[in-house]
Design brief:
36% of the residues lie in helices and 26% in strands. The chain is of the alpha/beta class. It folds into two domains: 101 residues, no CATH class; 174 residues, Vaccinia Virus protein VP39 (Rossmann fold, 3-Layer(aba) Sandwich). The chain has a seven-stranded mixed beta sheet with strand order 4-3-2-5-6-13-12, sandwiched between helices. It is globular, with a radius of gyration of 20 Å. The chain binds N,N-dimethyl-L-histidine (AVI). The site of N,N-dimethyl-L-histidine (AVI) has 11 residues, from strand 11. N,N-dimethyl-L-histidine binds next to strand 11. This is L-histidine N(Alpha)-methyltransferase.
């Protein structure tokens, strides 16, 4: 499907920059969602497993901290697997899955409704970068916004602050936020998680080129691009890039550009925030009284913050 006009312009502008970039949102077409699901099960990719372990172990504690919860709103809900660990403890009346991949999240909430009889479910197809509009029948009281997976780390800190403020507004008075963040750790652990031995993350990275081809009619050949992932300690982030294996000319409708051998397209950042810094960000976004759960290695944190 071609991209809407403004997305099309953004993509072309980003591709014509030096260095070029592609927004990580282009990872998540149908194939990309499947590849990401495969990543979450890889031995090297610890975040999903560690976060699920925390939700499973501390579910009752989290429910006590949250208190009565009428609606649980998951941002970037994807396959809605993580929320399964929370539903028995939180017992919300309604679950709202919000995701840019509308069909994918619709199927996922339908599966949830089958597995949790009595739970009302809604799917909202939306890019969470813009303020999210919920269906009208979602009560403004008793909302818990759930943003797991350390996805906040995929935004630059300034943008992350904007999103945290939007989440504060979405939760509303008396509501809260339950968020997962990946913490800084040994760079070998981090780099293996983003460059796995089976090459699934490499396939995920290259798949963005196929998605871009469909959006702007370009002729990127994914086989001509190498996956590059490394930890940038100055910025406390993993960076992912695609690197041209040879000199390349890429065409798209109405234009194109030359890439030198070794030239990179920056596709993703994944920030690893130290806990005290992230607490400061939550407080600047208007949240108060945070409770935190971390695993025994201090690799990942789940935080409940009151709006
Ligand atoms: C979705 N997000 C939190 C993932 C991450 O770890 O930054 C995306 C990802 N990129 C490569 N592997 C996983």
């Amino acid at each position: 499907m071609p991209a809407p006009a403004s997305a099309h312009e953004d993509l072309l502008r980003d591709l014509c920059r030096t260095p070029a970039r592609i927004s990580p949102k282009y990872f998540y077409d149908q194939r990309g969602c499947e590849l990401f699901e495969a990543i979450t099960g890889l031995p090297e990719y610890y975040p999903t497993r560690t976060e699920m372990g925390l939700l499973e172990q501390w579910g009752a504690d989290i429910a006590r901290s949250v208190g009565p919860c009428r609606s649980l709103i998951e941002l970037g809900a994807g396959n809605c697997e993580k929320v399964r660990w929370l539903l028995p403890a939180l017992q919300p009346q309604c679950f709202v899955g919000v995701d840019i991949a509308g069909d994918f999240v619709l199927e996922a909430v339908q599966r949830l409704a089958q597995d949790f009889p009595g739970l009302q479910v809604r799917a909202v197809a939306a890019d969470i970068c813009a303020p999210v509009t919920l269906p009208e029948d979602i009560a403004s009281q008793g909302r818990l916004v759930f943003y797991p997976g350390s996805s906040i780390g995929n935004f630059d800190p300034g943008h992350a602050m904007v999103l945290l403020r939007q989440m504060h507004a979405l939760a509303g008075e008396g509501g809260g936020l339950l968020i997962g963040i990946d913490l800084p750790k040994d760079r070998r652990v981090l780099e293996a998680a983003y460059d796995d031995a089976a090459g699934v993350t490499a396939a995920f990275n290259r798949n963005a080129l196929r998605h871009v081809n469909r959006c702007i009619g370009s002729d990127f050949d994914p086989a001509q691009w190498a996956h590059v992932a490394f930890f940038n300690p100055a910025q406390s982030r993993i960076e992912m890039h695609l690197q041209a294996c040879e000199p390349l000319r890429v065409q798209w409708s109405g234009g194109g550009r030359q890439f030198a051998q070794g030239e990179r397209i920056h596709t993703e950042n994944s920030y690893k925030y130290p806990l005290p810094l992230f607490m400061q960000m939550l407080s600047q976004a208007g949240f108060t009284a945070c409770t935190t759960w971390t695993d025994e290695r201090d690799w990942f944190a789940v935080i409940h913050a009151r709006a």
